[in-house]
Amino acid sequence: MIMGNFVYKCSSCLREYKRDEVRYLCPVCAMDYRPGIPLKGVLTAKFDYEFIKRHFSKKNPDFSLFSAVERQFFPDYPVGNTPLIKSSALSSLLGLENVLIKYDGLNPSGSLKDRASFLVVAESVRLKEERIVCASTGNAASALAAVCSSAGKKAVIFVPKTAPKAKLVQIILYGAEIILVDGTYDDAFAMSLRFTQKRGGLNRNTAYHPLTIEGKKTVSLEIFQQMNFEVPDAVVVPVGDGVIISGVYKGFYDLKKAGLIKKIPCLVSVQAKSSNAINRFIRSGRYSDSKNPRTIADSISVSTPSNAYMAKSAVENTGNLTVDVSDDEILKAQKILASTTGIFAEPSSSATLAGAIKLKMELKKFKSVLLLVTGNGLKDIDTPLKNISLPPPVSKDWI
Ligand SMILES: *Cc1c(COP(=O)(O)O)cnc(C)c1O
Ligand SMILES: [Zn+2]
């Protein structure tokens, strides 16, 4: 097992830093950062791709070459290795040749966020940090709490009090310290930064810690492995802060730089209508916050998406497809997905299918389209419950 060498490279000014020279953002670009604007100076891990080329073999593939933390620091937590499913039902529904689903809702805590939390906790083991702090709409927090419990670390979590109950229950049962914020996710983000500045600990906020992107990229490495060293033509991704889509991009980018794939798939950004700052930024070239993000898809509900710049270039570099979906379209897609594939996805992840339905004409040019289903439906049953009526009970001699 060998790990590739890497340096951190600033995504804004392109300055490079040694691994332990920086921890969060590029110190130069982050100088005038204040909460309430998208992050500047987000760091990416730049690997020694020539080294990977020399050492990676398809016969005996060693993906730790692409890892920014050594395996010896990994917690005992079964992250990733989620199923890749070929769905003939969705292929015919969408009129597309080949629709695939990567079902990341089967991660241990129920969402793709386990991948990011896993790598940041591994980093905390390497750095001997005992406390990890995070702001979250719910899933990053439940993932962090879960991985921390397996690694014997302490998690301190800031979440809006409106987060779905199952996510709050997870956080508490995994043993984290929970701070319920009487405010939005954006408020929780700012508070958690103040907390680590004043009281220390390792901050796991999405994009703020560069290894959140590195952790999320493992989903692309897995897709590549599961498709026999090939990649789909397009990947449809639900987008909130824009870190999952940046991670998906980074995984494919690394594979391309290592000479293992020829082309990065077209990454399609799906956002909720009232929380579409990144999609508007891509379409208009001008950034503005989502004033009032009010969507049932809590995991993609954000006013100021932290990784707006990187998400924008991921989309622009790969085909420039964006789509906004309404809550109604999300709920319909949730029902279709569950009743045709057996996959129950939380609202944010059902947005993926809602987006694919809306864009099905544009997707026709692709041979294979992968829908990234990021979170498990059991994390939020109150939302679909509002539209479900149970049949009246029958007496026990009914049949
Ligand atoms: C966090 C999350 C997203 C959105 O990811 P971003 O990095 O915020 O864009 C989508 N789906 C689920 C289930 C999530 O938890
Ligand atoms: Zn910089």
Give the strand line-up of the largest sheet: 4-5-13-10-11-12
Q: Share of helix among residues?
A: 25-40%
- Parts with pLDDT < 50 across at least 5 consecutive residues: none
The biggest beta sheet reads: 6 strands, mixed
CATH topology of the largest domain: Rossmann fold
Average residue-wise pLDDT: 96
DSSP summary, beta strand count: 13
Kindly describe this structure.
The protein is globular and about 70 Å long. 37% of the residues lie in helices and 16% in strands. The protein contains 15 helices and 13 strands. It has a 6-stranded mixed sheet, sandwiched between helices. The protein has a 4-stranded parallel sheet with strand order 8-7-6-9, sandwiched between helices. A 3-stranded antiparallel sheet has the order 2-1-3. The longest helix is centred in the first third of the chain and has 15 residues, at 113-127. The protein folds into 3 domains: 6-73, no CATH class; 84-110 and 212-385, Rossmann fold, CATH 3.40.50; 113-209, Rossmann fold. α4 (139-151) packs parallel to α5 and α8 crosses α9 (243-257). The structure holds pyridoxal-5'-phosphate and zinc ion. Pyridoxal-5'-phosphate (PLP) binds at residues 111, 113, 139, 206, 238-244, 299-300, 346, 348-349, 374-375.
